[in-house]
Backbone:
């Protein structure tokens, strides 16, 4: 039967999964989706994500694509999938796409949110939802450092596995916004044309060091220019990271 | 040794506890606190809450009191308690009080927040944090109904166990605010001089019926006047309820 590309908008709770990518028999988002499709269509359906997310990383707007026969109206398919999926992942909407659409290869950009609970103690409702940094961070310094990172750069210093990137380690960060909420949570929003493996968590680890006064914005510039992970600050934890949206 | 009343400001995550009140060996907030105090003072300390909260109910600003020797500066005691407490409950601050202070008997009023996730599907990050009501609720009708409930009334129709209330079932609700967030979550804030057992959850159950068009504000007035739980709408689930603050 003729198949049509479908685009799925997804939200999931990081702690419920061993990340996006299938590594059976661990519970992963990809396995949950492919199992739900199998139940509906009675044959295997391959689901591609816009990118992998690690274990404990949340998604507010992950996008996936698959090729399926256009048997069901999208709204019906949303309900059928959610019926079969565990509650930790939800299909928010589905739309049919033109031939050739692929969640990963068609993506034009992504937005990530990273939440730092800059309070002492950590509020219990933030467990698993933010990185706990008890000592006050210097926001003006962090914003200065964010300017150093904004723009088109080779981000080799901020990828945990350069071998994973087949082509270039150059990416364009369009903007980094840092906002402090009344609750004491810092929300860092990264908007870019694409991100390397663990790049956002590595950038946040570096920005936090600047906020602690243990690294200057000028030091960060040197680390960026070095194009090497050696000597770069450690990775920020997964539970503060949210894949917010993907642009096509 | 001379003891002084201390006031503790607390936050906890509902799903981590079998409610406030000790019922050993179940994990309760009171047990966690009394165990932490025992570890610090090497003798039993009785901790009183401003009121009980049920299993799965969250607290943003529960208040507890206890009589302890003024051995430690309050900030040091906060750190010591949090060191011994499980992460699902945190002491936010401690202050010394005048003789006679008691978290329950000195309380002048309380504020509760109730969150309804009025979206379809339920966002995974709202699991355990809100009551999921998928069909759109009529806010103007709910606000009309909230006006019926505001003021000084006998709320016998909205307590799950009238025998539990030793004296009167009359309470004064100062205000009920209903706000819809961009996320589709309704936040209902109840401010009053006190609340009966399960009163907020019973009021929310009734307001939701009005929002669904299955009960009119006039019907609600009749239910209130009847002063009987029989015929009143069902209780809303615990996981949407947050004890926001206690006034003294």
Residues:
């Amino acid at each position: 039967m003729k198949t049509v590309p479908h685009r799925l908008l997804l939200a999931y709770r990081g702690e419920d999964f061993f990340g996006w990518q299938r590594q059976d028999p661990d519970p992963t988002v990809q396995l949950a989706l492919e199992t739900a499709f199998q139940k509906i269509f009675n044959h295997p359906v391959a689901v591609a994500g816009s990118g992998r997310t690690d274990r404990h990383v949340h998604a507010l707007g992950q996008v996936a694509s698959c090729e399926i026969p256009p048997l069901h109206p999208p709204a019906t398919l949303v309900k059928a999938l959610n019926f079969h999926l565990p509650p930790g992942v939800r299909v928010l909407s589905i739309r049919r796409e033109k031939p050739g659409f692929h969640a990963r290869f068609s993506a034009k950009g992504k937005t990530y949110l990273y939440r730092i609970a800059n309070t002492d103690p950590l509020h219990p409702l933030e467990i698993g939802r933010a990185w706990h940094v008890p000592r006050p961070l210097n926001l003006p310094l962090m914003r200065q450092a964010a300017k150093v990172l904004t723009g088109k750069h080779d981000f080799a210093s901020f990828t945990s596995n350069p071998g994973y990137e087949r082509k270039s380690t150059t990416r364009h960060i369009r903007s980094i916004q840092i906002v402090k909420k009344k609750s004491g949570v810092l929300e860092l929003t990264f908007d870019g044309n694409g991100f390397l493996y663990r790049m956002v968590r590595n950038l946040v680890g570096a920005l936090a060091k600047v906020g602690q006064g243990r690294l200057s914005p000028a030091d960060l510039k040197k680390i960026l220019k070095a194009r090497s992970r050696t000597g770069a600050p450690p990775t920020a934890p997964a539970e503060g990271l949210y894949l917010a949206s993907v642009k096509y």
